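Revision sheet: C-alpha cells.
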Amino acid sequence: SLTMSSAELFTTIQSHIDTENYPQAIQAILDALPSIEDDKQKQFLTQSISSLFLSNNQPSEALKYSENVPYNRIYALYRLNRLQEALDALKDAPQSDPAHSRNLKLLKAQILYRMGDYQECADVYKALIDDASKEDKTDELYTNYSAALFLSKKYDECIDATKQCEENTYELSYNAACAAIGKNDFDMAQRYLDFAAKLCRESLEEDGYTEDEIQDELTSILVQTAFVKQVTGNNEEAANLYRQVIEQKPSDAVSLAVAGNNLVSLEYADDSNVVDIEKKMKLATTQKVEGKLTTWQQRGINLNQTLLLIKKKKFDECRALLEKLQKQYPESDVPSIVSAAINFKERNYDDAIASLQNFINQNYKKDPESTMRVQLSLAQLYISRGHFEEAAALLEKTDVRNCAGVVGALVALYQRAKRTEDCTRVLNESIKYWKDQKDRGNEKAEQNLTALLNASAEFNIGNGHMDEAIQTYKSIIELDPENKKYMAGFVHALAGFDLDKAEQYSTQLPELRTGDIDVAKLEKESVRGLSDATATVNTTTTATNARNAADTTVRKNKRRRKRKNPLPKNYNPDKQPDPERWLPKKERSAYKKIHGEGRSHQGSASIERSTTLQARKGQKKLLKPSDIGKLRKRV
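Predicted:
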C-alpha cells in the first residue's frame, strides 16, 4: 500500500493533469523520482512523465523516459521526424493486447503517411477497418483511409471510401473533392467543396463555435476552391481567394503555406517584385509546416524556392538547396531541371545539357514519367541553342511522341530542315497509333486522331499533295461528319481535281450569309471593273482577273487628282533655263566671292573645294601660278 506522502504526491500530480497544467505535473514527478524506492511506483511515474512530455509537445524529453514504454518511444521518434527509427522500433514492439496492437497499427499508418508510402498506409487502414467493430469504425478512420487512397492516386476508391462511412462529415466531402480534382472532374470537385463548406458551417454552429472560429476551420476548403478556380483558368478569382486566406492568418499552417505557394505560381513573372514573392514564400517555408506537408506539396514548394533563388541570382544557395533535395528525393527530376536552368543562366550550356542527359540515362527505366519531363526540357534546351536535329531525335524517343503537341513540334522541326518525308512519316505513324488506341477503346483516341488527320490534310495541301489530302479528309469526315470545318477543307482539296464533285459536296456546307449586301449591285460593279481592266491590260476574263480588276478600279477611284507643278512668275518659254539652277549660289560660275570668304586655318579645305568645283562644272581650266601663290599665302 502507498504511504501517505506517496498518496499526496499522486493526488497532486492528478490535480495538475486534470487542469492540463502539464509543466507543474512534470516538475512534481521530477522532484519526486529520486526519492521513490518502489520499482513499480518508479515505473509508473516514468511512464507518466513520458506521456506528459508528449502532451506538453516535448518529444525530445519524452524520449529520455520512454526506454521501457514502447508506444511512447515510437510516438516520440515519429514526432521528432525520425521516421525510419520509429518504423524499426515498431517492428520490435510487443503486441500485449488487441487494444495496444490496434494503437500500434494506427501509429504505423501515421508513420507511413509521413514517409510518403501512401499505398502501404492505405493497406494498413483498410485492415483496421475490416477488423474493427461497428463502434470503432469512426469517421476519423475513414477520413484517414480516404486521404491515403487519394495520395495513392486511387481516386475512384477514395470517393467510394468516403461513402462507406455512416456519418457524412465535411472532412470526407473534402477528401472526395480532392479525388475529383485528381480525376480532372472539376465540376464534381466544386460540388463536393460546396457541400463540405455547408456541412462544416452547420456542424460548427451547432457546437457553438464563433464566426471567426468557423472561418478559420473553412480555410482548407477555401484554399482548395481557389485551386479549382486556378486550374480552370479563373486566375483572378483564385488569386483573390488566396489573398483572402493570407489576410485571415489562419491557424492552419499547411493551408496558409499552400495559399502562399500557389499565389506565387500565379503572380510569378520576369518583372515580378522579388521582395513580394519572398514574403509569400516565407509562409510556405516556415517551421510550423515542417513534417506536416505531403511529399508532393513539399516538393512543389521547394521547386518554387529554387526558382526564387535563381531570380535573386543566388546560384550558390540554390545549388546547396538542390543537393539537399537530391538526397531527399533521389528519384525526382526537379533538381536536374533546376540545375540545368542555373547552368543555362550562367551560359554553361554544355553542363546544362550534361546534367539533363545524365538523369535520362540513370532513370530511363526506373521512372518513365520523370524521364519524359527531363527529355522535354532537354529538347527545349536544344531548340533554344539552335540544335534542331538533336531536338527532333530526342523527341522521337519520348514516350509521348504520338501526342498532338509533340507531333506538331516534330513536324515543325523537320519542316525547318526541309525533311518533308520525315514530316509525312511522323504524321502517318501517329495516326496509326491513335487508330490502334481507338480500336482498344481509348476514350481520348478519337479526339487525338481527328486532330492529327486534320493536321496531315493541311500539311499535304500546303505541299501540293492533293490526292493524299482528299483521302485524309474522307477519313476525318467519317469520324466527325457534322464538322463543317473539315467538310470545307475537303471541298477545297477536291476543287483542284473534280469541280463537279466539289460543288456536290459544297451543298452540305452552310449557306453564305449575305445580310444586307445587294448581290445585283455587287455583280454589276465586278463586271464594270472587269471591262476597265480589259481596256488597259490584255488578259483573259477569268473570275480571278475580274476580282483583280475590281480591286484596281476601287484603288483608282481612291487616288487624289495630281496637280501640275506651278511655274515661276518670271518664267519665259523662249529662254533656256539656267543649267546651274539646282546648285547652291556659292557653287555657281557667276557667283562673285566676297573678300575673306572661305578662309580656313590650314587651307586644305579651300584647295579641295576648288578642285571639286572645277570637276563638278566640267571645266578644263587650269589654275594660274598667281592663283597658286595666293593659295600658298593663305596656308
